[in-house]
Amino acid sequence: QTHMSPDGMVLPRARNYSHPEDAVVQSWRGGGRWFTQQWAVTRFVEANDSLMFDPKTGFQGGEGMTSSGQWWIENVLEECDSAREFFFDKRTLKLYYNPNSTSEGPTGSEQWVAPYARVLISVNGTMEQPVRN
């Protein structure tokens, strides 16, 4: 058996994407949720409204897979439209964020902090020296 993976997907709404080549498509395996597949998009073909996938992607475990269950697309500014979604524009280094709030949302004067540390808190113990207090 050889690996089967789609070449792309038809998505007419992608005509409105400013940078479809940055998109990533995720999909649950059809019939179950024990893994997802991920395809990097390389380009949009206007003639048939298709997002084309990088052939080096989509190999996350779908040997023989010809269908999928739920899918979603990420890394697309135009899809950043629901609460708690974000998009980082690598071209402008700008972060877009939709808060989950009943207020008017961010004012633009907020300060965002990104930690550089790989480990923020580490608690270690052993049977002989357990963690206390």
Which short descriptors sum up this protein?
single chain, 133 residues, mainly beta, 5-stranded antiparallel sheet, two-stranded antiparallel sheet, 0% helix, 30% strand, extended
Strand coverage percent: 25-35%
- Overall shape: extended
Helical content stands at under 10%
Please tell me how large the radius of gyration is: 20 Å
Order of helices and strands: EEEEEEE
Main pleated-sheet profile: 5 strands, antiparallel
| Protein structure class | mainly beta
SS field, number of helical segments: 0
Mean pLDDT across the residues is 85
Which ranges are low-confidence, i.e. pLDDT below 50, for 5 or more consecutive residues?
Answer: none
End-to-end Cα distance: 56 Å
Structure summary, number of beta strands: 7
Strand order of the largest sheet: 1-4-3-2-5
